[in-house]
Specification:
Blueprint (H helix, E strand, L loop, with lengths): L21 H5 L15 H4 L10 E4 L3 E5 L9 E5 L11 H22 L3 E5 L16 E6 L6 H4 L10 H11 L4
C-alpha cells in the first residue's frame, strides 16, 4: 500500500508551515564544538554582525537586547551581557543592574509598540533547566496576550507569528529610548 495515498487530497484543514524552526529542532545550526566557546556563540557574534543581518534592538554599555530567532511570541526579546558568561551569579554588579534596566525598558517599549496584556520574564540556568544556549546567560522577555496559548501551539505544535522578525526589530528599535 502506498503510504502517500490521499496525501494530496483536500481535507478542509489549512497548513501553517514553519520551516525556519527545523534548523533549531534538528540542531543543524549549532556550531561545531557547540556554544561553549565565544567563537561559536550566537550571542557573542550578534553585536558584531552588520545591522541588516542582526536582530539586535538596542545596545548598552555591558548588555544588549535582541529578538529571539525562535520566538515563543511576537516581540520575544532577550537581554544578554556582551561578556560570555553562563551563570547569573557570575555577572558583575554593573551587568546585573543593566540587565534589570534593559528588561524594564524592553517591557515599556513593547507596551508602546504592541500593547501586550502581560509578560513572562526569566532565565534558564543550565541545559537541564531548559537553556538552549546555556553557555551565555540571557534574560527572556516574552510579551503575552489573552488567548495567545490557543490550540495552535497546544494541539498543532505551531506558533503563529504575524510579523517578520526584522519588521519587529525595526519597530522596537525605533521605540527604544536613546541612551
Amino acid at each position: 500500500m502506498d503510504q502517500r495515498a490521499g496525501a494530496g487530497d483536500p481535507d478542509g484543514l489549512e497548513r501553517l508551515w514553519t520551516p525556519y524552526r527545523l534548523a533549531y529542532v534538528s540542531g543543524e545550526d549549532r556550531p561545531e564544538g557547540g556554544y561553549e566557546r565565544p567563537a561559536g556563540c550566537p550571542f557573542c557574534l550578534a553585536p558584531s554582525l552588520p545591522e541588516a543581518e542582526t536582530l539586535v534592538v538596542a545596545r548598552g554599555e555591558s548588555v544588549f537586547a535582541l529578538l529571539n530567532l525562535y520566538p515563543y511570541n511576537p516581540g520575544h526579546l532577550m537581554v544578554c551581557p556582551y561578556r560570555h558568561v553562563a551563570d547569573y551569579t557570575d555577572l558583575t554588579e554593573e551587568e546585573t543592574v543593566e540587565v534589570a534596566a534593559f528588561t524594564r525598558t524592553a517591557m515599556r517599549v513593547m507596551r508602546t509598540v504592541s500593547s501586550p496584556h502581560g509578560f513572562n520574564l526569566g532565565m534558564n540556568q543550565g541545559a537541564i533547566a531548559g537553556a538552549g544556549i546555556a553557555a551565555h546567560l540571557h534574560q527572556h522577555i516574552v510579551p503575552r496576550w489573552g488567548g495567545d496559548a490557543n490550540f495552535m501551539p497546544v494541539i498543532g505544535m505551531t506558533k503563529v507569528l504575524p510579523q517578520l522578525l526584522f519588521d519587529t526589530r525595526d519597530l522596537l528599535t525605533k521605540a527604544w529610548p536613546a541612551a
